[in-house]
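User: Please run a holo structure prediction.
Assistant: Happy to. Please share the sequence and the ligand.
User: Here you go; the ligand is tryptophan.
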Amino acid sequence: MKVALTGIKPTGVPHIGNYVGAIRPALELAKTCKARYFIADYHALNACKDPEEIRKMTLEIAAAWLACGLNPEKVLFYKQSLVPQTFELMVILMAFTPKGLMNRAHAYKAMVQANLESGKDSDDGVNMGLYTYPVLMAADILLFDTDYVPVGSDQFQHIEMAQDIAQSFNYNYGKEYLKIPQAIAREETKTLLGLDGRKMSKSYGNTIPMFASEEELYKLVMRIKTNSQTVEEPKDPETCTIFAIYRNFATPDQTESLRRRYLAGGMSWKEAKEELFNVLNAHLTPLRERYNELISQPDDIKRILEEGSARARELAAKKIKELRQVIGVD
Ligand code: TRP
């Protein structure tokens, strides 16, 4: 069985775009792979220095994945910070990472660019954690002999860097000690549209949070922006935000039937929104209930992550022992 691994940034409660684009496909992949999914809390430290915030966001994101159906008996579910071998591997990989490679990383380059445009020093506000982020990510991945890394396209460059670093290590020691990982692209069509018709994203403030209460969910759905077509007019499902969200939660039959109602005319936007609300609410209600139960028992979530991390440490310790021999520090 192939190994699938991905890191989850602790960003608090996800929205339905994260669910459709990241959580659901990762859980689907876990059915056919050995999955290792972890909370990337040390990655979060680069940007967030508030301990309470990190604790809260970690619990919320862990509860969210569990509520969406992650089974910790089947998926190795752990916290990066509880697997210290990650950081040992990072130090090893540092010696195989050209500084020039880090200079080319998109996230770093974007910050430098923004600094220069606003007349600041080019490295203003850039910490070494941010600069070396791709090496930590390579360590996350290479530590577990990962075959597949399901990620969004914004992460492809990081996966390529992990491949480069692994190849450089392997070339030096003459054998494939580090498995070369492959990125698995999320389908771009799975990018959900937000309330205003732009991509659903926290930074646009146009999201539908996964576990919004029924009343909140209703209000948000009613806020989705539509055009000014009259009830009678036939409507185009392909350019409609309501339909775009609907098809990700409805059965193929439901989707077909709503498509026909759009094309036939005689359906108001309000009715379309009611249909969307019904399907969304039916899908999300059991998840919301599980989430609320989990988040009220933070000790259970912590225990799950601790148990997963203990198993992850066993695997990681074996790998590090082997690598220590390879490099001559055994
Ligand atoms: N950088 C990833 C993100 O921003 C999170 C991440 C950290 C990750 N380590 C990883 C993803 C390892 C895949 C593999 O979403």
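Residues 46 and 265 are 52 Å apart (CA to CA).
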